[in-house]
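Teaching note: in complex prediction, the entire set of molecules is handled at once rather than each chain in isolation. The prompt given to students was simply: 'Predict the structure of this complex.' The entities are:
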Amino acid sequence: MYRIRIHGRGGQGIKMASRVLGTALFHAGFTVQDAPKYGAERRGAPIFSYVRADRQAINERGTMYRPDLVVVADDTLLAVPAAGTLLGIDAHAVVLVNSRDSADTWRHRLNLDAKLVILPSAAETADRANLPHIGATCAGAAACLLGLVERDVLARAIAEELDGLGDTVVAANQASALAAFDALAGQSGLVQEGVTIAAADYQAPQWIELPFEDASIAAPDIRAAANSVQVRTGLWRTLRPVIDYDHCSHCWWVCSTLCPDSAIRVAEDMPVIDYDHCKGCMVCVGVCPPHAIAGIPEYLAQQQESARATGGGADDTETAQR
Amino acid sequence: MTPKLLSGNAAAAWGARLAGVDYIPAFPITPQTEIIETLGSWIDSGDMPGRMVTLESEHSMLTAAGAAAATGVRVFSATSSQGLLYAMEMLYTVAGWRAPFVLVNVSRGLSAPITLEADHNDILAARDSGFLQLHCADCQEVLDSVLLAYRLAEDPAIRLPVLVNLDGFYLSFTREPVDLPDEEAVSRFLPPFDAGEIRFSASAPQSQAVAVLGGGPYSYFRYETHLAACNGVAVYEQIAAEFASTFGRERGALEQYRCDDAELVFYMVGSFATKAREAVDRLRDAGQKVGLVRPRLLRPFPLGPVEEALKGKQAVIVIDQNLSMGQGGILHTELLAALYGKPGAPPVVTSFIGGLGGRDISAEEFYHMVTVTRQAIASGTVPPPRLLYTAGELREIRKLQAVAMVERQETAPARGTAAGKEAAHD
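The expected output is the structure of the full assembly:
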């Protein structure tokens, strides 16, 4: 059986990627099981999906303890333990990371035994709507690494899964997927089929007896006030709203009132964005009357910050344009 | 027939579409919403006749479903978890009306604490309502069970509503290959509803489900409902045989997987049973004679088939994805009641609680349940029920508690003092 897990953020097309891959493998003659797994159901929140493919009926379900291929559509997730991107990865696994950094960098950072493949992230364009579709790109790259699906079957799977969204959307997604499929052609078939755990010499689970505990401990309560401040949902952000105070008309109430996460406060007649909790929904960018808020890619914003921290403040604009 | 990849929710919607339902009262809830969205889009596009109405709550939805069924039309509805519980008053009521229809439940753990993933305390809360229950293990079975459920509900020997259960996430959002039966074969198996005397209608005054005073009449009506439910075992087996000859798929009251020469069998319901099937295959590879018995029909309880299937086995390993507070696993309790004093009943029945709130059950855990049960056979001592819970999981809880306790001490230093605790223990 092949076991594939795809990690990304809500809105990137991670469920769509598993369905495209599932449908393509199904057309290639495999029995398939595919599913998304999400909790927060919000744009930017970590989600994953998975695909199992076999030549016989699939009885396995749920958690994938030993994936053959893990796709990470957003490399910032690798630093979020709760996202579980690295669960069950060993030397057998292939890890495909959509990133601007090199395989060596990631190998060094993660200290992983697995085969690491980088899917180079697209360069910024003036109109971000022209960026390739991440879900489709990951599905195409994964299909290539599996080496089980022909090009035209992949294209057909995309047409079926996106049926109803119109020819333009289908064509754009096909282009993204096939470009990634072709880009990794040299590594086609890198992913090896995994085995199941034999019952003869299994490792016994570390079951424990749950002790009785007083209800003051065992009731599901959090009594601290305002503790959600500690949950840094700003990590979900892929785009950062930045206020240009020269253009801000100091009306102060529009952005701060309409922010769905109450992440904009007003200090001395100025709106201030709380980046620890702004999820990057871009509502403020859309509603600001004088258009004084711009959305810039989060990674560029972070590059600017670190350049400023290292004393390269004068190069800000240049870094942002690079 | 070419199979299609369908999620459990899509399979449920296809079941309703193929059954030619007339009326769908609806209310959304995760993880069920896709079912009514799918049906809504088909009705909108004209691919499916029938009428859908969104109600203001599950309570009203069930009332509408029962009332419509009492007029003799074919009714479908779906809910999950808190929604099923919110409708609970009407579940008992419409079953008492003897109104036949099909309600799909997408299992999800109950609050509190609130969660999204599957366990069976929601559907089992409806265990005593008068609804019959079919439990599914895969997406194909979801579609098939909706068709079977209409035959069962509408049978003149029964005339009761039927719940079809599928697990949230593990089936609801999971796509698997599903054979869509052709409409002609479905209409042969499930012809339009012959409502007979069920003809409640406007401008023709009648009283339905009148009040009774005194226990005598009440007992009569309640016990008649029980007898109708009990008829369900024989009727279901006959319907399942007809289903098998029409569609070629076995859908008997019990799935019995590699049971013939099995010494030990797993006993469980729901989608995790396919994981047990996988474990059975691997255990067989290792030379262990293990099988799986899985009730599809849980209400009525298929007493005869269960007794027969388990006769002569050395042990039964019961896995409950539910928890009756202060008692333990519901399947375990019911199985012991069914087997007590029966000739050839397995001498050892072990109990495991697992999969609460969608908590996974690993392959190793299935293997280890067999090891523990073999030890019980050898020693003659049956261990107490066990929650499938690992040291690692407790460590994670301890981390969360550490945060919560620090916060509590910071914000409420007066609470939980030693003096307060002593007083509580007095």
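Point out the following to students. Chain A touches chain B through 43 residues (CB under 8 Å). The radius of gyration of chain A is 22 Å.
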